[in-house]
Amino acid sequence: MTAHIPEKPALEGLEQKWDAAWAEQGTYLFDRARAAETGRGGVFSVDTPPPTASGSLHIGHVFSFTHTDLKVRFERMRGKSVFYPMGWDDNGLPTERRVQNYYGVRCDPTLPYDESFVPPFEGGDNKSSRAADQVPISRRNFIELCEKLTIEDEKQFESLFRQLGLSVDWTQTYRTISDETIRTSQLAFLRNLERGEAYQALAPTLWDIDFRSAIAQAELEDREQQASYHRIAFHKTDGSGDIHIETTRPELLPACVALVANPDDERYQPYFGKTVRTPLFDVEVPVLPHHLAQPDKGSGIAMICTFGDVTDIIWWRELDLPNRTILGHDGRIVADAPDVIVADAARAAYAELAGKTVFSAKKRIVELLQESGELLEVSKPFSHPVKFFEKGDRPLEIVSTRQWYLRNGARDEELRSRLISLGQEMSWHPDFMRVRYENWTNGLTGDWLVSRQRFFGVPIPIWYGLDENGERDYERVITPDAAQLPIDPTTDVPSGYTAEQRGVPGGFDAERDIFDTWATSSLTPQLAGGWQRDDELWQLVAPFDLRPQGQDIIRTWLFSTMLRSALEDGRAPWSDAAISGFIVDPDRKKMSKSKGNVVTPADILAQHGTDAVRYWAASSRLGSDAAFDPQNPTQVKIGRRLAIKVLNAAKFVLSFPVPDGAAVTHDLDAAMLATLDRVIVDATRAFEAYDHARALEITEAFFWTFCDDYLELVKERAYDRSDAGQASAALALRLALSSLLRLLAPVLAFAAEEAWSWFEEGSVHTASWPEASGIAGDPDVLTAASAALIGIRRAKTEAKASQKTPVSVLSLRADAATIERLRRAEGDLKAVGRITELELLDGAGDLVVERVELAPQEV
């Protein structure tokens, strides 16, 4: 069985060899028939993160996906039928941006479809480019390009994941833009709508002016921006003087609806209930109290504009103020001034701003205020946090739009409490990540905005009835039957209507918005598990055992998936959540594309080998950040050394034949196996607790003791077939190798499989997880023998002699218990040290070499 062991084992080529073999043999396929026999308890199911197919994978993907694979491989070897699918998150803004830049195009829904369209080029750098330089194309042409590019990206992603050795069942894949996914996503939404959990509303909306789309709270991030306070005079209506406010956004003066101060601020209490007139535009606005106004900020009184920031929205809503939005969806000042601006001079001032960007409008209004004498002071620039879309380039604005929302507990105490309770019922690894989930849930300020004004995504399956004037009647929402799904309301026709009634009075109009990508990704358990498509599969895998993911998307992916499951099934979608840390650069800064410090994994894998990279990932615990220096990847190099040692040690062990009827009879062999039993127990507990790093640490420490000490101690006996202890040594070595390969298999997936194939049938990854042998032995015998071996080596080194130099006499002194254990390994110690006479002397204290006499060397 060992005839095919290579002359010189190497890691090179193992990835291609074993990936092909695993695919051919179906090693990682979900055994549905077996799962049906054992029931849900015999299945381990994973809600795998679907990476965004809009660019390249980075080292963070390797890190977190390896963590998942470690647990999956462990559970498979423990006898579970593993359901480990892979999804691709194709739709959404990142994909659209990549397509725009890759092909040099942009979508214009007003254009007709061009069947023969060829994009101007292929291979953009995925960086922002001017829309004016991009060729406008129809929505259908644009979606076709999105489909084409994501499919190509997904092929590359799968290739890299295969190289990484992920034990995914590649027959269980899904795309978030496929017909089946669209059906599932639309069906879930219609059920939300039917239960009153989904609704639409006209409301202030955070808006990205580049993407021309609404943005949800979970997609926000603060970025530091430079600003200056502008001290501006508002005029008291009674003519008694001015009230000074300070603002960073003077360009929004035409949208001012009130001034607000803290109710406890004595400076402004006399003015509450009175009015002032705005500078330049001469509009009368009230002065009102509100507890969110900060007395120590600026002049202590603020102007409320609709809308400058999220606080304006709160004031507007709670104080029941009018809406005077002046910003369009393109981020420019709209042409028509609010109705309340009536004076000729005021309308002329507004005309100076119309059509300008907020930047240009700010510059011009400052000039106008200076000319009118109403700008009193401009502060020195300072830095402050501004809301951005996490994938955007310019600050978000707030415009009023009609959008679809999903209730998420922000305004429903009962739902919020239920979501918190479900989170507490789960196991979190590490446990402190639960707090992040709870903080996000308790900090929600509004329901989940799920509609997007984009193109490549799941269509919202809604039509609207049109009144006699051809206007949408938002109270007449027309929904399809479940059997009709999937649909695209812009091309499909609702039941009871004809295509000729589209867009005409008394007919219907389509909802043109699509779902936010998270509204689909929040259904990954349902997409992968066959919800409302394959009831048998759904019952076998749901609720899932594991949700692995990054800590930064607890607020988006984890929370939204929990919400959908709570609304639909009243339960958590998984029993456990495993949260990986970030990858940071050598300066401990988080790696991100915006910072330019991202490392792509392909070169690292090619240079060092997959097992080395898997070892690096496995060395970090869940929730802990890991530094990665591509110039000096120390942990990767250590992992490569370990993988090579596994191959060489396996070849060496297999060189010792195991006689028929062999039994472990020697004390040192029994001691080694007893020590290994402890390792198996401890490593198993660690894997069960999602502590793969601890399992690796325990196993690796023993492996090096096994190679450096035990193998050296017993190799002479194992070689010598005339020695009565040869069979015991050879069998112990073989038993240990078998267990060690299985213990290391989740980490060193390729090296372990290669070595296993030299003496066992089948795959190590479907072999049973090792169990304690139960062989009676004293682990301290191995400990004492290892210490003695170290002492013997040191004595020869200090005598400037080779380790192969024979020794006439060597004396070891130690306490009585240690001496007694050394006597049980005396023959092996003499053999490895080439010692003629070994004196074992009783004494107090640690083991020491008291005397060493080298044998006379022949000339």
From TrEMBL:
Function of the protein: Catalyzes the attachment of valine to tRNA(Val). As ValRS can inadvertently accommodate and process structurally similar amino acids such as threonine, to avoid such errors, it has a 'posttransfer' editing activity that hydrolyzes mischarged Thr-tRNA(Val) in a tRNA-dependent manner.
Domain characteristics, as noted in the entry: ValRS has two distinct active sites: one for aminoacylation and one for editing. The misactivated threonine is translocated from the active site to the editing site.
PROSITE patterns per the UniProt record, alphabetical: AA_TRNA_LIGASE_I (PS00178)
EC number: 6.1.1.9
Residues where ATP binds: 593
Record-annotated Aminoacyl-tRNA synthetase class Ia domain positions: 20-105, 133-628
Subunit structure: Monomer.
GO MF term list: valine-tRNA ligase activity
Residue ranges annotated as motif 'HIGH' region: 51-61
Record's keyword terms, sorted: Aminoacyl-tRNA synthetase, ATP-binding, Cytoplasm, Ligase, Nucleotide-binding, Protein biosynthesis
Family: Belongs to the class-I aminoacyl-tRNA synthetase family. ValS type 2 subfamily.
Methionyl/Valyl/Leucyl/Isoleucyl-tRNA synthetase anticodon-binding domain mapped to chain residues: 669-809
Pfam family, one: tRNA-synt_1
Superkingdom per UniProt: Bacteria
NCBIfam families: alt_ValS, PRK13208.1
Classification via SUPFAM superfamilies: Anticodon-binding domain of a subclass of class I aminoacyl-tRNA synthetases (SSF47323), Nucleotidylyl transferase (SSF52374), ValRS/IleRS/LeuRS editing domain (SSF50677)
Species per Swiss-Prot/TrEMBL record: Microbacterium paludicola
Protein name: Valine--tRNA ligase
UniProt keyword Nucleotide-binding present: yes
Cell compartments where the protein resides: Cytoplasm
Gene: valS
Catalytic activity: tRNA(Val) + L-valine + ATP = L-valyl-tRNA(Val) + AMP + diphosphate
Motif ('KMSKS' region): 590-594
InterPro entries reported for this sequence: aa-tRNA-synth_I_CS, aa-tRNA-synth_Ia, M/V/L/I-tRNA-synth_anticd-bd, Rossmann-like_a/b/a_fold, tRNAsynth_Ia_anticodon-bd, Val/Leu/Ile-tRNA-synth_edit, Valine-tRNA_ligase_type_2, Valyl-tRNA_ligase
